[in-house]
Amino acid sequence: MRRAVIFDVDGVIVFSEKAYQKRRAAFFEQNNVSVAQEVQDYFVGSNAYDMFEQLFPEDIDKRTELLQAYKEFRQHYPMDYQEMFNPDILPTLDKLASKNIRMAVASSGPLENIYRILEVNQIKEYFELITSGDMFARSKPNPEIYQYTLSRLKLRPSDCLVIEDSTFGIEAARRANLTVAALKSPQFNIDQSQANYQIESSQQLLDLV
Question: What GO molecular functions are on record for this protein (predicted)?
Fold first, then answer.
């Protein structure tokens, strides 16, 4: 029996990636940056730092300037995280809590944004630990975020189940020797072949713990 479930946020708790793509496209257009749609799709599950590093690998000054500008742009771009909320999440959290399963968050997103998502949907109190990719030198697919989460929970990989959606997130969890359930995306056709399980609803986690 699993003792804990670790949740990704974007694409799992909220279906936000299409909105993020739209936000990035608006920023790119405003700053005269040309990014093909397939490249946009590639960045699903990534973070802003890694995105600009890959877009401008040889131009540190350019990517630093754009990264700062994008952080400011995000502050003024509205996001309705209640509208994006996965309706299966709350009953899933309630049932896991009734089974005394511990719960944590490990997301590539900025910590402030993670808290906002959890708070506006009134689910923050379910999670004993909230971890952001911003806390590490490299975010997913680097496994450090999951290794750190395990160490803070004082659990072994075999004690935990991860729910992810993106290729980057699945790879990060697998590299940390964790078992992964991949939630099928309603917005993208994502390669989830590295996951141990593929699920249509987060409530299917209850059959895996």
Answer: phosphoglycolate phosphatase activity
The two tokens of residue 165 are 């959606």
179 forms beta bridges with 161
- How does DSSP assign the chain, residue by residue? --SEEEE--BTTTB--HHHHHHHHHHHHHHTT----HHHHHHTTT--HHHHHHHHSTT-HHHHHHHHHHHHHHHHTS---TTTTB-TTHHHHHHHHHHTT-EEEEEESS-HHHHHHHHHHTT-GGG-SEEEEGGGSSS-TTSTHHHHHHHHHHT--GGGEEEEE-SHHHHHHHHHTT-EEEEEPPSS-----TTSSEEESSGGGGGGT-
* pTM for the model: 0.89
Given a contact cutoff of 8 angstroms between Cβ atoms, the answer to whether 106 and 169 are in contact is: no
Structure tokens at 208: 């895996």
Q: Give the pLDDT of residue 5.
A: 98
